[in-house]
Amino acid sequence: MEKPILILALNFFLMTGLHAQVTGMWKITDENSKVEKSVVEIFEKDNAYHGRVVRILPTSKRTHCDQCEGELKDKPLVGMVIISDLVKTANGGEDGKILNPANGNTYSCYIELVGPDRLKLRGYLGFPAFGKTMYYNRLARVSSEKLAVAVKGLKGRHLSTRGTALGLTKGFSPGTNHDDVSQMV
User: Fold this and answer.
1) SS3 label, residue 56
2) Which of 137, 83, 143 is nearest to 113 (CA)?
3) Which residue has the higher pLDDT, 173 or 25?
4) H helical segments located in the chain
């Protein structure tokens, strides 16, 4: 009797752990060239998953949604929500939408966590069988110790370029000396 209860508890724990790991920063790799192009943040809002572009990597030629129509036409990709309304499931989300900035089209999609640092995204028209699968790789996490060392090295310095490289520019104004590192996180 103890064994089935233990298996059920372990299964619940694993499913809950996977569910919580969908959110975060993910590197998007071009499926044809295998070159990393951007970073997307998967976040939760209104009990659904969404994804926004937070960084365009130097290897990407596309910085604006030039193929989009309407209000998104020629808007910068950074900050743009390209994944929306994914209904949360045990290991991902379903019944969502994804915008493909390369052609401006919106597709149905689902996401599935296939490993702790690997996310499968399937975009499709009508039925999942008629679509395309992409894999996102989790952006390496910076430990708080490494971040503290980086911040200590920058303390009292001008952060317009160094802070940008580390993604520490929130709340900063160029040319200002910021000794209070609590503002950096």
Assistant:
1) strand
2) 137
3) 25
4) 2-20, 144-154, 159-166
